[in-house]
Design brief:
Layout: H1 3-22, H2 28-38, H3 43-67, H4 73-93, H5 99-119, E1 137-141, E2 147-151, H6 155-172, H7 177-186, H8 192-217, H9 222-245, H10 249-271
Helix pairs in contact: 1-2, 1-9, 2-3, 3-8, 3-9, 4-6, 4-8, 5-10, 6-7, 7-8
Family: Belongs to the 4-toluene sulfonate uptake permease (TSUP) (TC 2.A.102) family.
Organism: Candidatus Avipropionibacterium avicola
Protein name: Probable membrane transporter protein
């Protein structure tokens, strides 16, 4: 690997992890395009490295979210069971799905994520006196010093959506936060910061199983993983601070633009145009 490529991968992973961690999506959604379009890495190899970067993002930003009271541990454990099962299914499907189909699905995920960012999220379910005693209730202090109480609604529906998120996570090499956060918002109506922080913890656990499978199969390129992981760790720490301290509207706009831009070359890959498909 040349020094210039190392620097490009490091900076790209850092920027992607900072943006991704700020919204609970980790940096995997940026790492795959970075590796396939810049380093010309084949899609399966890019997925393997991306999963490792997701683990790095989750571990690095997790302590900040836990200290701020944003992560709902009890809910994360329940939802992660369904997500892990879905991830195992995704790993088994990896070699059966054509590369162009994966690019197409990836582009669709990017577009859906962008739409979600533009449309915003529904109001969270405020906790009543009875809800505060619920197993999935919680509270945190927002950036403006206001105490926010909440509880999770329709957990079984959310668990079903997490199964699908786990499957796509393994297939696409992303943290599946792009699907988990909308699911927690639409199905369980959690506050955005709780959804993001809880998703951040879950995506790391989900990625562990899939990354281990790639490591055993010998499809993980450790040389490529080094600059990506280093950049992901530093970027996710910055992203965690952004999420805790910021209200988020400006970041949401920037993230939407980035997702839309990334969807263009991924769509070209799916259609076989422009020679974008990694070699």
């Amino acid at each position: 690997m040349t020094a210039s490529l190392f620097l490009v991968l490091f900076v790209g992973a850092l920027a992607g992890a900072a943006l991704g961690s700020a919204l609970g999506m980790a940096g995997g959604i940026f790492v795959v395009p970075l590796l396939t379009l810049v380093a010309h890495v084949p899609f399966p190899a890019a997925v393997a490295v991306s999963l490792v970067s997701v683990i790095a993002c989750s571990c690095a930003s997790g302590p900040k979210f836990l200290a701020s009271g944003l992560t709902n541990l009890r809910l994360a454990i329940v939802l992660e069971v369904a997500t892990t099962l879905g991830a195992l299914v995704g790993v088994l499907m990896t070699d059966t799905v054509p590369a162009r189909v994966l690019y197409g699905v990836f582009a669709a995920v990017l577009v859906v994520s962008a739409i979600q960012m533009v449309s915003g999220r529904r109001r969270a379910v405020a906790s009543t006196t009875g809800a505060r005693s619920s197993r999935f209730a919680g509270s945190f202090v927002d950036h403006d010093g206001r105490s926010v109480d909440y509880h999770a609604d329709r957990v079984p529906l959310g668990a079903g959506l997490m199964f699908g998120a786990g499957t796509l996570s393994a297939l696409l090499g992303i943290g599946s936060g792009v699907l988990k956060i909308p699911a927690m918002d639409a199905a369980m109506r959690l506050p955005i910061k709780v959804s993001s922080a809880t998703a951040n913890l879950m995506i790391g656990v989900t990625a562990c199983g899939a990354a281990a499978a790639h490591l055993v199969a010998g499809s993980l390129d450790l040389e490529l993983a080094v600059p990506v992981v280093l950049g992901s760790v530093l970027g996710s720490v910055l992203g965690a601070k952004m999420l805790v301290r910021a209200a988020g509207p400006a970041l949401r706009i920037v993230f939407t633009v980035v997702l839309a831009v990334l969807a263009v070359p991924m769509t070209a890959n799916a259609l076989g145009l422009g020679g974008w498909i990694g070699r």
